[in-house]
Amino acid sequence: MIDYKKELNPEQYQAVTTIQGPVLIIAGAGSGKTRVITYRISYMLDSHIPQKNILALTFTNKAAKEMWERVRQLTGKKLTNLTVSTFHSFGAQILREKIHHLGYRPNFSIYDTQDQTELIKQCAKETNLHPELLNIGLIKNIISGIKTDRIQWTEENEVYQQVFLEYQAHLKAYHAVDFDDLIVLPNKLFSEQPNILEEYRNRYKYIMIDEFQDTSILQYNFIKQLAEKNRNICVVGDDDQSIYSWRGANYQNIMLFEKDFPERVEIKLEQNYRSVQTILEAANHLISHNTNRKDKKLWTGKEDNNKIQLIFVDDEKKEAEFIAEHIRTIVLKERAAYHQIGVLVRTNNLMATLENTLLQNNVPYKLSGGKSFFERKEVKDIIAYLRAILNPDDDISILRIINTPKRGIGRQTIQHIGDIATEQGISIYSAISSIRYAEDSPVSNTIKKTLDEFMAIIEDYNYRLNNTGSIAETIRELIDDINYFEYLLGEYRDNDNIARYKYQNIMLFTDLIERWEKDPDNLNPNLWSYLTKISLSSREDNTEESEKGKVNLMTIHAAKGLEFDHVFLAGVEDGIIPHQRAIEDDPSNIEEERRLFYVAITRAKQKLYLTTCKKRKIMREEKEQTPSPFLEEMPQHLITSEEPSQEMTEEEVDKLFADLKKRFSE
Ligand SMILES: Nc1ncnc2c1ncn2[C@@H]1O[C@H](COP(=O)(O)OP(=O)(O)OP(=O)(O)O)[C@@H](O)[C@H]1O
Ligand SMILES: [Mg+2]
């Protein structure tokens, strides 16, 4: 049995044990908000609240996974019915159960940004959008903004209305949803179908939300509907860490919560348990420059006089080398564990040099927030097969695979199939099927035979994946059947190694499926839920590749909620943080940039390194850089720019040998 009083301070204890009625906790970084949620779940289970009545939501897959793991360790229980998930996976789960009420198939496809791009291009063509207006990024933004009530139609964006309507109609026809739909559609179900809402209210009687400051208004409304009746909802967050306003998240929702749940209990947490004094003081000082915030006190008992290290280097190569070498030193000297080290960057484009240099220096690392394994072309091809097999109305997937590997179905045939589909208002797959029997078709008999074979694959594997034993094994047979390896060898005729490498990737993909399938905690391994899992994981963080013993190289956004003994923040330069484009768009964004800086530095438990380059190559162009103005917003006596010593003292060398000797004799 856990001694809650001993493991929590009095305010945390109150937050953990107040399980009836609404609770609001707004508190600074490292004050134990996430800890409160995990202990709260454990406390509920101790109070005999059934697992299935509990719902905990958070922002990233990684955070959800860690929370789950923590509860499992705390309680030692098997958590088969507990829901700890991201908003998007929770939405996907509801849709899986109820989407037929909206006229979709339960095997619906989830489109990622690549699929979205394809679909937008298609819709633009169909609506004869002027090619000059085809700005995919902008259109995606408008579509998402309209769907999530973030923006309205205006004179300016009206030209895209037709594309938007087509886009929506196509998704529906394909039995496909985009990421926004994972919240929009469940929200719609809740507001339009009272018995469905009632069913979920009866299931999820106790609700918790971590990182509440980054919940969008739409996500808030969705959860509000769920919580309104039982009113057992606990939200925890920090307005100083709100870093997703560009995606519609808005800490206004804290005020909405106060209004919607006036009887709430409000709890303040003021002790930071994460960081040493220096780091906390610097962070507090920095964030006090924001005007628009709730004032908070935050103190730590962790004394320390290690200053924050500011390192000036010539360019990004030197920066990466410093980081790689210094990581090796602290691993050796301070016995730091690789996974307790975080290397953070403001933007994705700073990753490449760091990644290369870590690799060259044999520093094991894993990357989050970058391009996902599941977005590689060869892996996506196989995923498209699987999606098409489960949901043949998914035109985007069918079109991706109809001639991959090449089977001699040319552009003309595809155009003809597309025309039939449009004329008759049917899916591409149904159009293929109708061509096979059409007497007056311009399609030759040879091609008809090929189309026959293609359909046979889809149907055959639809049966097998739903009915036979191992999913992974069946997928390997599929890869064999379509001759994917030969296709790769043909595509990369000049370089067998690339073909082999790509083939290894898809074999790794099937291995991941196998591992998932055989996982004893996985009670219901079906392919659809695996595909959903990866659609969701490729969004932000790559949970599949997470392993111990590796340095974490990630964007600040992906690091939210995490903590590391040692943190390196690279590119502490004006224009990078604060980010130039963000400031140009709207000068008030400086506050959000400051919050990002605050999130970055409060990830550090013991030691913080900030690196600044004199020059940096940005988009192939070498630029003179100046240090970030945020550096001046921290008390200067907490920062030192003396190079950290790489040499070991005699004492340290002795200690190192003693440690090694001990390890070998164990
Ligand atoms: N009462 C406590 N006793 C010991 N350790 C604690 C206590 N409260 C929190 N901690 C530890 O402090 C660290 C920070 O806690 P946690 O991650 O829950 O903070 P947080 O408020 O969620 O931070 P963030 O705002 O960054 O998400 C964790 O390692 C946690 O285990
Ligand atoms: Mg947290």
Short recap of the structure:
The protein has 666 residues and is an alpha/beta fold. The chain has 28 helices and 19 strands.
Please characterize this protein's 3D structure.
Keywords: ATP-binding, DNA-binding, Helicase, Hydrolase, Isomerase, Nucleotide-binding. This protein is 50% helix and 12% strand. The strands form five sheets. Strands 13-14-12-15-16-11-19 form a seven-stranded parallel beta sheet. The model is unreliable at 542-546 (pLDDT under 50). Helix 13 (277-287) links the parallel strand 9 and strand 10. The chain is of the alpha/beta class and 666 residues long. It has 28 helices and 19 strands.
How many beta-strand runs?
Answer: 19
The distinct bound ligands, ions and cofactors come out as:
adenosine-5'-triphosphate, magnesium ion
Residue windows where pLDDT falls under 50 for at least 5 positions: 542-546
Question: What is the oligomer described by this structure?
Answer: single chain
**Cα-to-Cα separation, first versus last residue:** 32 Å
Could you tell me the radius of gyration in angstroms? 27 Å
Structural class: alpha/beta
Strand order of the largest sheet: 13-14-12-15-16-11-19
Rough shape? Answer: globular
Q: How would you state the average pLDDT, rounded?
A: 90
Number of DSSP helical runs: 28
Helix content: 40-55%
Strand content: 5-15%
Strand count, sense and barrel status of the largest sheet are: 7 strands, parallel
Binding site for ATP: 27-34
Domain UvrD-like helicase ATP-binding: 6-276
Organism: Rarispira pelagica
Protein name: DNA 3'-5' helicase
